[in-house]
Amino acid sequence: MIDKDFPIFDAHMHYTGKFMNKNETLIEFLDRFGIDKAIITTLNTSANSKLLSTINNKDLTDKQLADKFYPKNQYNHEHVKKLIESHPKRLIGFYWFNPRIADEKDWKELTRYIKNYNFKGVKTQASLDNLDPLTDMDKLAEFCIDLDIPLYFHSGINFYFQKPFKIQSLYELKKKYKKLKLIIGHAAYTMEYMISLLRYFEPFPRVYFETSLSVPYGIKVLIKVMGAERVLYGSDSPPATTPDIEINKIKILDLPKDIQKKVFYENTNNLLV
Ligand SMILES: [Zn+2]
To answer: CA within 20 to 30 Å of 74's CA: 45, 96, 98, 180, which one?
Structure first.
């Protein structure tokens, strides 16, 4: 159990994952770690096992492997929607959308979720969905600006069959869409990445940095350089880890109480109003 003096809003969770106990519900999981509210999205449950099962298959070229691997359809959000409907005060949805393969019907479905249910943002995953911010994300950026909702960008490096991801591409997107509220996920997942973020995103006030799976020292630098109001606590639980680990990465920084309050709760809460 976490010993805490203020509420916690987790800016990055999924509706399920390996770190839930047997028969545990998501709400029980939240309670176990003292999480008051959470942004949840769906999960690509087969991606990692699919990739792990093919790494030794030498009959496939990288290109064939990539073609087999990339999703052909949008992700299902039925589970997430039901959970949110049952717990509207604690759960808020982000719709995981793949703009690269989206057709008219997919855009309509995305709009329906944002307008009719408690979905208040869009999440993208550039590695799993093979997205290039330079060519695949314009329409989505415009969509998020129109509806005044944040766009979450999952940070990560390329798989071995992809061309390397460049942080400059994300910067070019943001430069084009100044009004876009952009959340950069796993913002300090390496020190090198975090330092590059400082270099490119310092001029843009509407960029937020989510802390899941980050290096604690990187979180400290982000708060110091970018300002405490732009850093959002997130855990990427239950699939990647448990929240206590991610909460402690911020607790050990020994930040003043008012800054902790902002990072753990207020910033995410304000962003979604
Ligand atoms: Zn995640």
So the answer is: 180
